[in-house]
Each structure stands twice: as C-alpha cells, then as structure tokens.
Amino acid sequence: MDHELFDPGQFSADLAAARNPTRAFKKALQHADDVLQARFEGQRDIHKLIHDRAWLTDHQLFGPPAFLFHDSKGTEVTQARIQGEVKRATFLEHLQRLKAAN
User: Which of 27, 76, 91, 94 would suit a FRET pair with 42, their CA atoms being 20 to 30 Å apart?
Assistant: First the structure.
C-alpha cells in the first residue's frame, strides 16, 4: 500500500469526525489526486502510478484497503465487497454471512 497516496489512519479519523461520510471520501480522493499531481510534476516515472490508479478506477475503489470477494468462476461478488478498515470481529462476521449464503 502506498501510504503517501492513501493514509488509512487519517481516513478513519476523518470518517469518524465527519457528520457526512462523503466529505471524508472526497478528502481522501483529493489528497490522492494532489500526491499524484506532485509526483507527475516532479518528473517521476508515473507508469506504475497510472496503472495503479486505472486499476482502482476500473474496480470503483477509492483506495486501499479493500476486500474483494470472488466466486469459484473468478467473478467478483460485488455485494460482498468491503471498503475501508473494519474491526476484526466485523470482518469475521462478514465472512460467516458469506459462508452461510453459499
């Protein structure tokens, strides 16, 4: 994970403090955009960054962490997706629900 691009601790703090969770997501996206812009202007090799950004965009993710679940055919089960940090107990409950559903 590129912590300069996405700081999960800062995102969690912003999300907890926000009245409207959309603001935390927008702030995280703006920060990522600012970092990418600074890297581009700094003449760094951005091929990997472009590839990573495209992958996130293709999968409709704002950034890590994200848990994507796939069926036996390799197709993502989008309703099972988890974006952002979750507590261990919450994650285990989610896995139990997935297991019970299948």
Answer: 27
Sorted by sequence, the CB contacts under 8 Å of residue 80 that are 6+ apart come out as: 69, 94, 98
**What global pTM score does this model have?**
0.47
* Amino acid code (one letter) for 34: D
DSSP 78: G
Whole-angstrom distance, CA of residue 102 vs CA of residue 95: 11
pLDDT in tens, the chain (102 residues): 777 878 888 888 888 887 888 888 888 888 888 888 887 776 666 777 788 888 788 878 877 788 888 888 988 888 898 988 889 999 999 999 988 887
Residue 24, φ and ψ in degrees, nearest 5: -65, -40
